[in-house]
Amino acid sequence: MLLVEHLFCYANSVCIHDVECRSSRRYSFPMTSKNQRLDGILEMVGSHHFMSIGDLAKSFAVSEMTIRRDVRDLVDAGKVRAVYGGVASLENSGATANYNAQTERTQHADEKRRIALAASTLLSPGDVAILDSGTTVQQLAECLPAEGAFTFICYSLNTMNVLARREDTTVISLGGVLSPKSYTFSGPDAVQALHKYRANKVFIGATGYELKHGLTCSYVEDCSWKQAAMQSSVERILLVDSSKFGKVSTCSFAGVENFDTVVTDDGIPEPYRRDLEEKGLKLLIA
């Protein structure tokens, strides 16, 4: 069963509460000067490449409306880009152009398949799970056990097409605007809709994982999806093949410590294995 929900809300951004961006914890600006706020916004966006309106408002202790006006001034001045749910740097405006879901699917296919099979053992009949975008998570949808009733909330067209062929499976789609490269839906109304759902598990992918810079993704629009999905879930599971270790992509969306379990392949570098163990995460090697 495919349940498609289109919600048209007046809210234009998402404020992450449970999964705080590392940038929100790192920066605190108890200031009221507009020029100081503008400089601070540029510093944060320059460092993390993407910031949500909600996180900026919390960092500066002002209203989201105030931040929207500040961002509009910076956009008009040609210093940042306004994107769904927040603001992005100009520096990486073309950095995502090389990512293509169909091409990415053929990269490290064996490792992704093994990771997906291992991740499928973490699901139990009756689970409600959010599935992130990305080819490894799509592989998970293809590796599900034949028997068992599940409910999945997802925003990837390719993953929805896989799940729609299953019996006894409910698929909840949140609508939005479809990206022709990533085959994912995006938009503030769709992300806002995700906040009213709850899941006992979420499976998240990443384009890069670097010890200092944490987890990153290719598309600025994906940050809000990933953060909202993590906020709405009890157990957070990261699926990442070993080719992603040591890489940094366009946008930072979380620290690895925000996850409960990491599923990867046996090519994981030793420093990353140690880091995950020291942080107390469950590590599943496929």
TrEMBL record:
Residues 34-89 form the HTH deoR-type domain. InterPro entries: Carb_Metab_HTH_regulators (IPR050313), DeoR-like_C (IPR014036), DeoR_HTH (IPR001034), NagB/RpiA_transferase-like (IPR037171), Tscrpt_reg_HTH_DeoR_CS (IPR018356), WH-like_DNA-bd_sf (IPR036388), WH_DNA-bd_sf (IPR036390). Gene3D superfamilies: 3.40.50.1360, Winged helix-like DNA-binding domain superfamily/Winged helix DNA-binding domain. Keywords: DNA-binding, Transcription, Transcription regulation. GO terms for molecular function: DNA binding; DNA-binding transcription factor activity. It holds the Pfam family DeoRC. Signal peptide: none annotated. This is DeoR/GlpR transcriptional regulator.
